[in-house]
């Protein structure tokens, strides 16, 4: 028999030399040991391979790098903090996709507290952007669990949501302008800090939520806000899912502008936090099936938010919607209450295997989502533990499921698609979305045809083809094959 055809080289001859000439030795990583952390996604769902990691330090270097890769027909995978929940920043297993990391582009270019804007490069860590705004006497309000490692480019590319969406919107609403390197290496220079700009198609919005499939965001002009000068945080045990929504409505009706966050947590999830997170203490008596975290904030120092909180909770207790509540009396107590919410993912991880469904429905239908999806999941896998939690104030519930204690992790995870399909049947019936804030990535591309098929998906494919005719920018993500 003739010898098998030898595999094609990962990179065309001479390309690595040309890339090194553009980026310098610090900008090109080829050692297998050094690449390992960049080829596995944050959740460990995908283990890919790459011939090299490229780390440009400026927009001009990104442009020259992309131009070289495009001319050679080499696929590119943009990567920020690698915190994608859906494998959106991981290369595939072919070993031919190059990773482009913008972590060296980490400058805050400008902070203007009169215009209330910040211009930051894509590699700026979200926490660093928050701190830079605070140092200037302003607030950059985007806040999420991975803010210590997620980057500005990544959160915009995924249109990240987080805890304060109910007040400030997703990443898209916090973006005024973008600088983007297109798939052929051209630079789209749109770092405008205008609130009004009706000059044709709003191209900047195409790149937000596109997960790097249309171009690489290299910098962004972001909206800032006045900092909070008065706050109030409370943890409430509530009678039911409907009581949780009723409590949100009470606060909204009294002063919608005061609500910074409104989070729902189940008794099962809080129990996991109690058991698995050292030092976590639930500051209400007994154990309950449903909890809410209420966070109020105002830029007015004289705003009586504690008075507002107490008044609304008194009314809700009289209506038997709130069973017990603990109002934070210090920043430390507020942080301890928030920790109960933020440690949910880690507590679930320590409790065993789990399958995560990041879904959204109209706010009015969140109680029905939690009830129906939980019942359907228990019926699907008896003994399993639904752990719904998240942003009830904007309709985004993380409808997670933890493995039964008498089932192996492998057996449980093998049912992953069945679990997600079960949740999504309920979500579809409630006019919701199968991906609220995590995006599509690689994990959910097979759902796009049934959820976004027809004219909507065809329009997405035409946009992708127009921007990236070679299909080199983050291939295999967002759109189904």
Question: What's the arrangement of secondary structure elements?
Answer:
Blueprint: H1 15-23, E1 28-29, H2 32-39, E2 53-54, H3 59-72, E3 76-79, E4 98-101, E5 108-112, E6 117-121, H4 126-135, H5 152-157, H6 165-168, E7 175-181, E8 187-190, H7 204-207, E9 216-223, E10 230-238, H8 241-255, E11 259-266, H9 267-276, E12 290-298, H10 305-318, E13 322-327, H11 331-342, H12 344-351, E14 354-355, E15 358-360, H13 366-380, E16 385-391, E17 396-402, H14 409-413, H15 416-429, H16 448-452, H17 455-467
Parallel strand pairs: 2-4, 3-4
Antiparallel strand pairs: 1-2, 5-6, 6-9, 7-8, 7-9, 10-12, 10-13, 11-12, 11-16, 14-17, 15-17, 16-17
Helix pairs in contact: 1-3, 8-10, 8-13, 9-12, 13-15
Shape: globular
End-to-end separation in angstroms reads 35 Å
Q: Give the helix proportion (percent range).
A: 25-40%
Q: Please compute the radius of gyration using only Cα atoms.
A: 23 Å
| Average predicted local confidence, pLDDT | 94
> Structural class, from helix and strand content?
alpha+beta
Annotation field: number of helices: 17
Q: How many individual β-strands?
A: 17
Second CATH tier, the architecture of the largest domain: 2-Layer Sandwich
The percentage of residues in β strands lies in 15-25%
Query: What fold name goes in the CATH topology slot of the largest domain?
Result: Uridine Diphospho-n-acetylenolpyruvylglucosamine Reductase, domain 3
Major β-sheet annotation: 8 strands, antiparallel
At the first level of CATH, what is the class of the largest domain? Alpha Beta
- State the assembly state of the protein chains: single chain
Give the number of domains: 4
pLDDT below 50 for ≥5 consecutive residues: which ranges? Answer: 1-8
